[in-house]
C-alpha cells in the first residue's frame, strides 16, 4: 500500500518555508498532494489557480508531488485521494496549540488518517506568506524568502 500524504494550506504565496516542509515530506511519503484551499477568513492576493500554477512551477523537480485544490473538510478530501496522512508544518511552539485542536478534530472525523508534524528549518521559523506579501508590497528584498518564480509574480501584483 502506497503512503500518500496531503499538505494543506492557502500558500498565498508559497514560500521557502513551505517548500522545506514539502521537500522533506516527499522524501518520506510515496506521494504528496499539495492541496490549496481557499480560506474564507483570509483575503488572498493570488487566485487559487495562480497559487496552484506557482506551486507546480516550484515543485516540478519533485516527481511524487501533485498539486490540487479542495473545498470542505480536509479529512474528506484526504480520503478521496486515498491519503493516509496529513503533513503540517510547525514554525514555533505557538503554532502547536492550534494544530493540536485541528488534529484532534480530524482524528475524531476519520481515525484512519494520521497527522504528522514537521518542524520547519530554523532559518524559516519566522517566515509566513503574510510577512512576504507585506515586504513585497513595499518593494523590500524577498529573494531569500521565496523562489524566483514567486518573487516575479509578487512583483507583478504589486507593480500594477
Automatic annotation (TrEMBL):
<dbReference type="Pfam" id="PF01467">
    <property type="entry name" value="CTP_transf_like"/>
</dbReference>
<feature type="binding site">
    <location>
        <position position="99"/>
    </location>
    <ligand>
        <name>ATP</name>
    </ligand>
</feature>
<feature type="binding site">
    <location>
        <begin position="124"/>
        <end position="130"/>
    </location>
    <ligand>
        <name>ATP</name>
    </ligand>
</feature>
<dbReference type="InterPro" id="IPR004821">
    <property type="entry name" value="Cyt_trans-like"/>
</dbReference>
<feature type="binding site">
    <location>
        <begin position="10"/>
        <end position="11"/>
    </location>
    <ligand>
        <name>ATP</name>
    </ligand>
</feature>
<comment type="pathway">
    <text>Cofactor biosynthesis; coenzyme A biosynthesis; CoA from (R)-pantothenate: step 4/5.</text>
</comment>
<feature type="binding site">
    <location>
        <position position="42"/>
    </location>
    <ligand>
        <name>substrate</name>
    </ligand>
</feature>
<comment type="function">
    <text>Reversibly transfers an adenylyl group from ATP to 4'-phosphopantetheine, yielding dephospho-CoA (dPCoA) and pyrophosphate.</text>
</comment>
<keyword id="KW-0548">Nucleotidyltransferase</keyword>
<feature type="binding site">
    <location>
        <position position="74"/>
    </location>
    <ligand>
        <name>substrate</name>
    </ligand>
</feature>
<dbReference type="InterPro" id="IPR014729">
    <property type="entry name" value="Rossmann-like_a/b/a_fold"/>
</dbReference>
<keyword id="KW-0547">Nucleotide-binding</keyword>
<comment type="subunit">
    <text>Homohexamer.</text>
</comment>
<dbReference type="GO" id="GO:0005737">
    <property type="term" value="C:cytoplasm"/>
</dbReference>
<dbReference type="GO" id="GO:0004595">
    <property type="term" value="F:pantetheine-phosphate adenylyltransferase activity"/>
</dbReference>
<protein>
    <recommendedName>
        <fullName>Phosphopantetheine adenylyltransferase</fullName>
        <ecNumber>2.7.7.3</ecNumber>
    </recommendedName>
</protein>
<feature type="binding site">
    <location>
        <position position="88"/>
    </location>
    <ligand>
        <name>substrate</name>
    </ligand>
</feature>
<feature type="domain" description="Cytidyltransferase-like">
    <location>
        <begin position="7"/>
        <end position="134"/>
    </location>
</feature>
<keyword id="KW-0963">Cytoplasm</keyword>
<feature type="site" description="Transition state stabilizer">
    <location>
        <position position="18"/>
    </location>
</feature>
<keyword id="KW-0173">Coenzyme A biosynthesis</keyword>
<feature type="binding site">
    <location>
        <position position="10"/>
    </location>
    <ligand>
        <name>substrate</name>
    </ligand>
</feature>
<keyword id="KW-0460">Magnesium</keyword>
<keyword id="KW-0067">ATP-binding</keyword>
<dbReference type="GO" id="GO:0015937">
    <property type="term" value="P:coenzyme A biosynthetic process"/>
</dbReference>
<feature type="binding site">
    <location>
        <position position="18"/>
    </location>
    <ligand>
        <name>ATP</name>
    </ligand>
</feature>
<comment type="similarity">
    <text>Belongs to the bacterial CoaD family.</text>
</comment>
<feature type="binding site">
    <location>
        <begin position="89"/>
        <end position="91"/>
    </location>
    <ligand>
        <name>ATP</name>
    </ligand>
</feature>
<keyword id="KW-0808">Transferase</keyword>
<dbReference type="InterPro" id="IPR001980">
    <property type="entry name" value="PPAT"/>
</dbReference>
<dbReference type="GO" id="GO:0005524">
    <property type="term" value="F:ATP binding"/>
</dbReference>
Amino acid at each position: 500500500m502506497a503512503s500518500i500524504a496531503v499538505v494543506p494550506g492557502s500558500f498565498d504565496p508559497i514560500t521557502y518555508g513551505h517548500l522545506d516542509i514539502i521537500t522533506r515530506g516527499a522524501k518520506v511519503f510515496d506521494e504528496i498532494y499539495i492541496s490549496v484551499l481557499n480560506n474564507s477568513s483570509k483575503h488572498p492576493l493570488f487566485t487559487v489557480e495562480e497559487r496552484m500554477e506557482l506551486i507546480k512551477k516550484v515543485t516540478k523537480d519533485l516527481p511524487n508531488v501533485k498539486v490540487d485544490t479542495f473545498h470542505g473538510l480536509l479529512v474528506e478530501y484526504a480520503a478521496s485521494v486515498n491519503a493516509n496522512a496529513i503533513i503540517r508544518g510547525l514554525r514555533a511552539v505557538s503554532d502547536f496549540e492550534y494544530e493540536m485542536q485541528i488534529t484532534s478534530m480530524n482524528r475524531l472525523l476519520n481515525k484512519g488518517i494520521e497527522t504528522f508534524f514537521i518542524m520547519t528549518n530554523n532559518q524559516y521559523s519566522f517566515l509566513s506568506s503574510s510577512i512576504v506579501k507585506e515586504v513585497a508590497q513595499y518593494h523590500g528584498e524577498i529573494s531569500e524568502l521565496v523562489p524566483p518564480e514567486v518573487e516575479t509574480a509578487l512583483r507583478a501584483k504589486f507593480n500594477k
